[in-house]
Amino acid sequence: MNLSDKVTIPTQVMARTVGDETVILDLASGTYYGLDPVGARMWQLMNEGQPLAAVCETMLDEYEVTREALEGDILRLTEELRAKGLVSLA
Amino acid sequence: MSVHYTEQPARPLAPVQDVPFHQWAFPDGTLWTQFFRQGAGYLLRFPDLADFEVSADGARVQGYPAPGVTSATVEHLYLNQVLPLALSRQGKLVLHGSAVDIGGQGVAFLGESGRGKSTLAASFATEGTRFLTDDGLLLEWVGDACAIIPSHPSIRLWQDSEDALMNPDAATAPAVSFTSKSRFLAGQGIPFCDESRPLHRVFFLGDGASETPTIEALRPAEALIELVKHSFLLDIEAREMLMRHFDDLTRLAALPIYFRLDYPRDYEALGAVREAIVRHALDPHQARPQEPA
Q1: Predicted pLDDT at B105
Q2: For chain A, which ranges sit under pLDDT 70?
Q3: Where is average pLDDT lowest: B22-36, B188-202, B252-266?
Q4: Which end of chain A has the least Cβ crowding within 10 Å, N or C?
Q5: What ipTM, to 2 d.p.?
Q6: Phi-psi domain of B253 (left: phi exceeds 0; alpha: psi -120 through 50; beta: other)
Q7: Within 13 Å, how many C-alpha atoms sit on residue B89's CB side?
């Protein structure tokens, strides 16, 4: 997996915000994942079909963070979501 | 309930060519239910027991017992498994849970099979508190509030709970052949509430590790995850319906009514558990502050 990858979201996976948390759920398997607001923003941009590199560019404009740290965070989150079956690589 | 059910004559459960799009199995891997598409509708197969054909809109169900399986067994499967699934196909919100009426308020107990939902409801009922459902918790929005709709007036119990809780004279429905649970009909000694009640508290039942009754509030995101885990859903691939279901659950999760309840699984301790629940349910200070919309 690298930053040129795009992710797709399986049909039965969806996210909702409740309180100050976002929950991603696979309604078929019951698998779930909680996101903080930064994670939720990554999820939203990934959902728009952009490659991870574009997600990173957008977020660099929005958050005070180094490119290196943000790239690491995006790849780590994507890998965790992929391992749980909540996203697949396009 | 708005499902038209008819039982058909017994027929062999013929092999199905298609691959099931979903299935339920017991923890030991034994197959319990297979979900097939059949035309626009669904075929639900309980291996060696029965087939149920459910129309695409969930409004009509036909039950076909396997040869030698009693009507009581098929009716039992219908009421406890198929009816909640059919209602979910109609867009209704159905959860795995029991509920009782405490002071005119609906108090629900959600948990996986074996966590004690029915036992707790029966324990309340035998002490004179009316029950609303012992499984298949049907919820409906009425304006900004959510109500519990009463379901079938019976309670199913495993033999050990039956021995501990039930009067030997309590009326039972005919025995069913796939489970050692008995089904008790509401009546004298097991009062049933046949009117809807506002959903006032939802307790998710813990694993029994706690030595005394303990009640802890859940965050909305935790409640949402638990609500999803305890949902009946017939078609896990119908995306629009899933989205609506998830929206419903998200709206539900924002209510300040969710708690985790744990207590030792000891019949002698049930009195103290009931007391803790009643005290909590009637205490206006126990509600979690409402989340901003």
Answers
A1: 96
A2: none
A3: B22-36
A4: C
A5: 0.71
A6: alpha
A7: 22
